[in-house]
Amino acid sequence: MKKLITALALATPATVFAANVITQDQIVQGSQCVGTDCTNNMSFGFDTLVIKENNTRLLFDDTSSSGSFPNYDWRLQANDSNNGGSNYFSIENVTNTKVPFKIDGGAGNNALIIDAQGDIGIGTSTPAVELQVTDGDTPTLRLEQDGSAGWTSQTWDVAGNETNFFIRDVTNSSKLPFRIMPGTGDNNLVLKGGNVGVMTTSPTSTLHVKKSDGTTNLHIEETSSTKTARNLLTISNNGNPQIVLNNTGKSASWKISAGDNFVIKNTDDEFVAVVSPEGNLTLLGDVYMATSDGRTVSLQELISKVEAAHGALTTQTP
């Protein structure tokens, strides 16, 4: 039978209640109630220890006072004591007056779960990985720098739903600078060794785009309705060719660079075409042009005819 141990003290209005001091071990083979609202013959159900009154607290008071023994005091607390306060359960660091752990009274099922493998579930009782966040609408992880350390406040969200996985810049009008749509293929974006790969896990240059289905590899589009002139693509380096065109399986490749002159070179690193800042065009070898009636005309032949009729033309070598 469950037993209730109750200390009764008879007192007149001027009497002070005295505490019972027991200097020996005590064993209670039953349940126990502590608090001003405990009653005789109360039902314990399956509870072994009940703390019952209008302010329920359990204090761990460590009296260590010598050497380097730990001596922090801790308290288990249920609810605020003031009228209109909050409903919660908390662990309080009494020594430093901080509350590192708190469960609000409105928390739902599986708000926080740690399973047998140590995996943590938020919103789920069966986390499948080390940390799983489950929600019915856009599960989100928020990273908030609140300014308490002196740095500018900034908040980011990492979230996902049926539309996309995204990073949201909450501080700046909730812009979405990074998005991945469901169904995106393997290796769409790979960062490796300082290089960026698109559709390849082994990028060999700063930006390496690899596709085999014949579709366009690079598409730059200006959608602004303004007429302001601006560059859609600017390529610069230390003087080496800025663009190399290498058609795999073909014997020729082409190098395009811009310095004092705009230059196109062939596989043998020979100048094929040079355009000077003044607009002069220099070509290596013969050049053929198509006429409107479908004929092919040699530029060299055309120059010869012009020179025959009008005199020698001025030429310039690179």
What do you see in this structure?
A hairpin with a 5-residue loop joins strand 12 and strand 13. The relative contact order is 0.04. The protein starts with 31 loop residues before the first strand and ends in an 8-residue tail after the last helix. The chain contains one helix and 23 strands. Among the domains are: 29 residues, no CATH class; 31 residues, no CATH class; 27 residues, no CATH class. The N terminus is likely disordered. The strands form seven sheets. The protein has a five-stranded antiparallel beta sheet, with no helix packed on it. The chain is mainly beta and 318 residues long. Helices cover 4% and strands 31% of the residues.
Brief overview:
The chain is mainly beta and 318 residues long. The chain is 4% helix and 31% strand. Among the domains are: 109-137, no CATH class; 153-183, no CATH class; 188-214, no CATH class.
Q: What form results from the Cα inertia axes?
A: rod-shaped
Count the strands? 23
**CA radius of gyration:** 40 Å
Q: SS-based structural class? A: mainly beta
**Percent range of helical residues:** under 10%
Strand content: 25-35%
Average pLDDT figure? 88
Q: What is the N-to-C order of secondary-structure elements (H for helix, E for strand)?
A: EEEEEEEEEEEEEEEEEEEEEEEH
Number of helices: 1
CA(first)-CA(last) distance: 109 Å
* pLDDT < 50 runs, ≥5 residues: 1-12
List the topology elements:
Layout (H helix, E strand, L loop, with lengths): L31 E3 L14 E3 L4 E5 L13 E5 L9 E6 L4 E7 L8 E2 L5 E3 L8 E3 L6 E6 L8 E7 L4 E5 L5 E6 L9 E3 L2 E4 L8 E3 L33 E4 L6 E6 L3 E4 L5 E5 L5 E3 L4 E3 L5 E3 H12 L8
Parallel strand pairs: 1-2, 8-9, 15-16
Antiparallel strand pairs: 3-4, 4-5, 5-6, 7-8, 10-11, 11-12, 12-13, 14-15, 17-18, 18-19, 19-20, 20-21, 22-23
